Amino acid sequence: MPTVVETDVLIVxxxxxxxxxxxxxxxxxxxxxxxxxxxxxxxxxxxxxTNQRTMEVLRDLGVEQDVIAQATPQHLMGNTTFCTSLAGExxxxxxxxxxxxxxxxxxxxxxxxxMCDMPQHLMxxxxxxxxxxxxxSLRFQxxxxxxxxxxxxxxxxxxxxxxxxxxxxxxxxxxxADGGRSKVAEDAGLPMGGQMGVAGSINIVFEADLxxxxxxxxSTLYWVLAPGATVGGIxxxxxxxxxxxxxxxIVWGYDVxxxxxxxxxxxxxxVVRQLxxxxxxxxxxxxxxxxxVNEMYAETYSLGRVFCAGDATHRHPPSNGLxxxxxxxxxxxxxxxxxxxxxxxxxxKLLDTYTAERAPxxxxxxxxxxxxxxxxxxxxxxxxxxxPQTPERLWANIAARKDAxxxxxxxxxxxxxxxxxxxxxxxxxGVDLNQRYASDAVxxxxxxxxxxxxxxxxxxxxxxxxxxxxxxAWITAGTRTLSTLDTVGKGRFTLxxxxxxxxxxxxxxxxxxxxxxxxxxxxxxxxxxxxxWARLSEISDAGALLVRPDGFVAFRHATAAPDxxxxxxxxxxxxxxxx
Length: 579
Known about the structure:
Number of strands: 24
Radius of gyration: 25 Å
Distance between the termini: 44 Å
Structural class: alpha+beta
Largest sheet: 8 strands, mixed
Strand content: 15-25%
């Protein structure tokens, strides 16, 4: 009888969700094993847009600089271009991914990090290498088969694909991060909303020097409006830069009811030629694959000791670049809770807050990504390009926008408005940063419901309300300048206060929970030379914020309190599930 392998947490899948779960758990000292049925990490670019919130997570986990070293920087991402082909006519551009001057200022004010373009085949090794270096055990070619669970743990059966035999891994908890066809989620019976396979897309990875068509308008995405571009897929032909300006990925639609076309090299090259528009440039096809556009989300992210994360729980097209970001943030939310439950600090009830906090985010992401597909249609409508017609008719409609007529002027205005409206896909700063949690791991402070002063999808609104991410402000410690976000995280709670907050400091030190203390003010441990923290903290100098290990505010008291210890103790009991 083979020996059962034992660990605290078994993670199925080594993609962004699984790899980041392993990294966070190993950073927190929690033993874990990752199994993947594949022989290697991702070998195609797949997910790539990495937003500020995810970069904050990676900053806290100590790999931000490793990502920056390999990623395409923000300033090369943002001239999202609409054209008839790369070599053809340009129809308009959207300053994207924080590269609009006003949005760039908002990005600078919101976070110490910058978004970047980090393709998945480069991101996964950064996460996995760091996880393994910190203690994760990684098993390639090891396929999850099934699991059973009892009151004390989960027993998973896995198959060694090299030897062909099966064996068991016994874990206290199981994380299913096994993608959009998750067997863990299926076996756990997680209820799903929405539907799979609503449209069809093809990914074609290729190499070509396209600098003559792209370097002067650097971008991550080039959208091509051409005959057939509205069939299936994500609303238009897409030429995506993987590495400037020689590695590329094309997304092209197909009729999902008719099935995917035969993905021969000749077919792939014909699509590349159509979207590039220059038959003389040498092209090397690296790979091609078909996939479906999905609109599905889990209503519950766990069953007992089994949790799912990433594409296992939210399945959607790549619009808005939210997939890997949401996956990494799922795992970051779950990891600290598992750590505190495993070391006895928290009651297992804390783990119920994972679904309460992340499921609404997953549903929002699926809805937003699919809505962005529909928002491409007005661009075609402005060119009368949605009704059945010959390619010649479409080209004539595109050419007509140049006429010196009243009709052409209206057409130009409609086209500009339609392209500008894509800001909801390419500059949705609020979707990235306005996440709000409502769960038992957040203690309301009695203030009324939050009112957003601007569109919450487009604009980030910082707040220290319980359930919101702690606001970023630049503060100093001696000669060092750092973000308020740099004072929190690291796997423990943090209490932030100011001059007059001594009762809160004593209260934090009196707890059985590991709580770091941060005092901000003149002559204190940290100073606020710009006055930004005084404005953003939304508490008096003698008030306090208790920030969770994931950087979200768990408890807020705006003023001094003679009963600070009792208030903080009660808040922690509620947060940790002991109340």
